[in-house]
Amino acid sequence: MAVTLEISKDSEEWDNLVEKSPHGTIFHTWKFLKIVEKHTNSKLYPIIGMKGTTPVGIYPLFLQKKFFLRLVFSPPPHVAVPYLGPVIVDYDKLKQSKKESIFINFQKAVDEFISSELKADYVYISTPPKLLDSRPLRWVGYEIKPLHSYIIDLSKGIDCIWKQFEKKLRQNINKTKREGISVEEGSKEEFERIYDLLVERYKEQGRIVTVSKEYLCDVYNSFYPENIRITVVKYMSDIITGSIDTYYKDILTSWIGHTKTKIKNIYPNDLLRWEAIEWAYENGLRYYEEIGAGVEKLCTYKAKLNPRLVVHFSATKHTSIVSKMAEDFYFRILKPTYTKIKLMKKSYDGTKNSKKR
Asked: Do 137 and 154 belong to one domain?
C-alpha cells in the first residue's frame, strides 16, 4: 500500500508520533516547529505519512522565498537546530523489509509534494540521529553527505565515564574545582547572560551571532524547565561562561554556550560539561550528546570525553543549473560571514570559518 500525505493540524497527535519514534527529537515537537516558523519567515508544512488510516511517519518542511527562489528546509538556517527531517513511527519494532518499504515510499511521496506542490528550487534536509538509512533520499536524487555528533552512554555508570576521560581532562576538572569555580543552575537572567557572552565573544572575533535572542527567548519560555536546563560557571561571583542544554526523552544535548573565557590556567568549560554529564546521569537519562563533531578543531577537544561518534546525513537537491547558481550566490555572497552557535555543519547554515571559541 502506498504512503499518502496529510498536513497535520493536530498538535497532540503530532507530538505522540514524535514520542513513539526513536528518531523524534525535541526539535520535532509541535511547539518547537511553530517557534521556528515564527522566527524564520517560513511557512511550516507538518506532513504526516499515512498507510490507509495508520500514521507511519512525520516530515516537517519549511518553505522560504528568497528573490526568485523557493527554498525548502528541514531544518531552516539560523535557528541552531542541528537536525530535523523524517521520523518513522515505531521504527525499531519493524522488520527490515517494513522499515525500508515505509521509508522509501514515504520519501517518494514527500519528494513529489516538494516538487509539485511547493515547487522548490532547492531542498536541504538534515536527518536525525538513529536514522542511519540515507538510501531513500539518494534514490530520489539527493546529494548525501555525512554529519557527525558525539554521544556518551550514561548507562555505563558515572565512575566508568570519569575513568574513561583522558587523564589531562580529569586533571583540568579537579584543578578548576580547587580554584573556587562553581557551577550553578539558572533561569531567565542567567539564560540572557549566556546569550550576551556569545555576542561578546563573537564580536571579539569579528563575527555575528545569527540566532536571535527573541527566538531563543521563545524557546526558553515554551520549554523551561521541563526540557531546557540553564547552567552557568561563576568565578569571584561573576558569570564567565554557561550552557543552554535541552533534555528530551532519554537524552541531554549540549546545545548553546560554552564560550571560551579569558581566565588562564583554569578550565571552566571542562567542569561545565562534567557537571552536565553528572546531572543527566543522576536524573535517569541514558545519553549525553555533544554537537559539533564535524569540525576538526572542536572534535580534537571533545574526543577527550571518550564519546561515541554518531552519524546522520545532510541531503540537498537542486532542480536546475540556474537554481544551483542562485543557491551559491545566496549562501556564499548574500549571507554574512559567521560561525554558527555550537559550530554546526557549515553546509546547511552558511558558515565560512569554524574557529574554536
From this structure: no
* Among 230, 233, 232, CA closest to 177: 233
186 assigned to some structural domain: yes
Virtual CA dihedral for 84, 216, 18, 273, nearest 10 degrees?
80
Query: Mean of the per-residue pLDDT values for the chain?
Result: 91
Distance CA 25, CA 16 (A): 12
* Cα–Cα nearest to 109, from 18, 1, 2: 2
**Distance separating alpha carbons of residues 311 and 151, to the nearest angstrom:** 10
Residue 330 has pLDDT above 60, yes or no: no
pTM comes to 0.90
Please give the residue range of the domain that contains residue 193: 150-309
| CB-count exposure of residue 254 (10 Å: 0-12, 13-18, 19+) | buried
Contact 291, 253 (CB under 8 A): yes
344 Cβ partners below 8 Å, 6+ apart?
Answer: 80, 82, 291, 292, 294, 351
How far apart CA 304 and CA 267 sit, in angstroms, is: 14
Task: Please tell me whether residues 30 and 138 are part of one structural domain.
Answer: yes
Q: Give φ, ψ of 334 to 5 degrees.
A: -80, -30
The helix-helix angle for 268-282 and 167-178 (nearest 10°) equals 100
Cα(147)–Cα(125) distance, integer angstroms: 11
User: Is 355 among the domain residues?
Assistant: no
pLDDT in the model for residue 292:
83
